[in-house]
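Readers of this paper often ask what the protein records in our data store actually look like. The remainder of this section carries one protein's record, kept here as part of the documentation.

:::
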Amino acid sequence: MRAFMAVSVASAKPTRLFRFFALENHVPLVPMSEETFTAFHATNKITPTLTIQPMSVTFEAILTSEKLPSLWKVKGSGGKNGEVKTSGQGESALCQGEEKSMPINSGNQWISFVALTLIGLPLLSAFSRDGVGVVSVDAAFYRPDRGTAFAWFEMAKGIEHFHRENYRAGGLVEVYLRNDGKEPVSVERIFVNGKDVTEPEKGGDVVWWRLRPNPIPAEGFGELLIRLREAPKEPTALEVQTSTKETLRLKIQPALTPIRMEGLAFDEKGERIFAFVELVGEEKQKITRVLLDGEDVTKQTLILSPNFWFNICPIVVRSPKRLAFGSFHYLRVDTDKGAKAAVLFRARDDFFPLGSYGYVTPKEYASNNCNLYVCFGAMRTHELDALKSYGLKGVSALVGEGELSKETIGHKALWAYYLMDEPDVHDYYVEGLPHEKRVGYYAMEIVKRDLRCYTADPSVLTFLTVDLTYKPANWFTYGRISDVLNTDPYALHVGWEMRSVFEVAETARLACAPNMMTITYQAFFYEPVAKQHEGKFPRMPFPEEVRAMMHYALAGGAKGLIAYIHCTERSGDVISWGAQDYPDVWFEIGRVYRELELVAPVLSRSHPMDIAKSLTQGIFVRALVAPDAIAIVCVNERIKSLPEKFVSATVTDAEIEVSLPPWLAVKVAAVVGEGKFVALPVKLTDRKVRIKLPELKVANIVLLASDRELLKQLSDRYERLQLSRSSAFLAGIRKEQEQQARRFGLCGRFPPSFGNMPSHLRLKAVTAWSESQCGIQARRSGRLGSGMTLKARANTR
């Protein structure tokens, strides 16, 4: 057995700082004075993440009892001043700093050393290991659920007061493992507080656990997450048995970790990582070190606010090598007080999803500036080919009992696999368990599906939609399983105010952080065929309402938007009207998508912060802060949704004040429009900036930057993207026309002049020509739902 213990050594040089790290588990030591050290051993309170700070006369070090003779050699009369040196690998692994030796007091050194060793015996329970010794603990901590001030209620029978009466906040035990061996390592059994939870009991204290990636590659890192149903009151004892016949034992304190990773983003090429570290403890911290895959990359990292500004520090890591899409990597951040934040992630690019559910009709989506299509079913090869031909990515469901479709593995149009739709709804129908213990019933099944997906298709992400059942336990329970958490707050459908979309997005983001979160917003209406609609809003959302809900989602931190739904279909006695039968709604979705595409790179690498306030009543504002810009989401809350109509009231000269981060000197402000920016005057006052919006009809984004160069870069990118998409759209139409020609023995060509048109006109021209020449209609005319015509809808505003 290898037991780690603390050894106190008096130093003859109290002003010299030495920092030691454990050879076997790479866990730093706990900062403590002599009084604290004595009390610490007496009470046997051990934290799994240990650190060291400079002390006047005492240094702490972690050693293994097995290796004490080989690691430490005490020179007697032959040594200098009783010098203790490290030998072998200890010279490189044990000591950090210029010196690799430490003088100790002269005298009977062996007696002092043995006595100090015995003092450390109570630390045996902090971390221990049996076995070969290739797996070590790099970081370990407890991450409690983040509470929000929102009051949740349920509509389903029997759980109307779930949040008030039954909800108990839980949390995640996070352990980051390092495999120093030459072979992959997996976890075979896991015990929590002495109980085998390898196959968690349904409704038990442990909801789910997973190792990712599984197995941990040779000389790589793995993330072991254990979801606890309720917050522990005592230390959580873990025992992890690995495939190398090692047994790792830890005790995780239930205390809040001082800092945590809250956001991750990437640039287009996978060369830079944008991370947002949040200070959640009360003690001041300063970020001093950044490691990527175990390598110190502090010198290649921009630490924009090391002392935390508004409790946030953005960091920009330049990776030594390009990160392959979907590949696993480990990021760790250390502070001067020994605190650390860590996450194991799958690399992405800066893709910002702007998509829709519906039938597999890629031309419809491409013509409205969508870049993603989400399918409830498993798409076939020819359907993915169609998406690719129109420049779209896809989210495809699994087949059978959660298996991948072998024919589409590796398809270039696949962006993510749909692991399951709304597992929290399925939880509700579980029998034999009280409602508070049903949440997460399907979690282990989803964990297994996630494993299958990234193992078989490592360049495709995983995607999970969680509904509004058992709020907010549902988001926290399922949030960290997939690469992308999606949730669907259909505000008007359930009778909520539109601002509830922000509340859902905010909570879901906290639940899945630092993973990616997207929002599916309402663009549908359910109409009963044979009876009166009983909902508060018995109609399709107006375009202005859809626009407001989309912006509320962005304010909550959504890193993508998905419309539900484009198509119209009947199911039993209910007609589900989609956006295709409401041209004004579908057009507004496209308009917002074009606006967001212009600033998508900034939105992708931003993080929500409460540094903006409206000086004009009735305006909601939220800042999305990126390393190089700030996007201000503005929503006019003087607008009002009524049962049969929508009431708007344009706000003029709305004034907004924004506190400026220390790393950004704002000199330029502009309203984000369709493919263009509209400049605004900027007034600077003592690290704050004031801007005035001439008018705010419903919702807009204002971009703040240090100069116009960023705006030019974004505009140029947008133009290139539109040109590429219009070319793809033209190619897709040509391919579709050729297929029709072959089918009917016809032949047709596009006018040659189309190739010379500007990109923003070509798409419209091709669409109009194809509709007139090929008999293909972009939208269906006819009934708009509830017997309301388009003209009638216009008259209700």
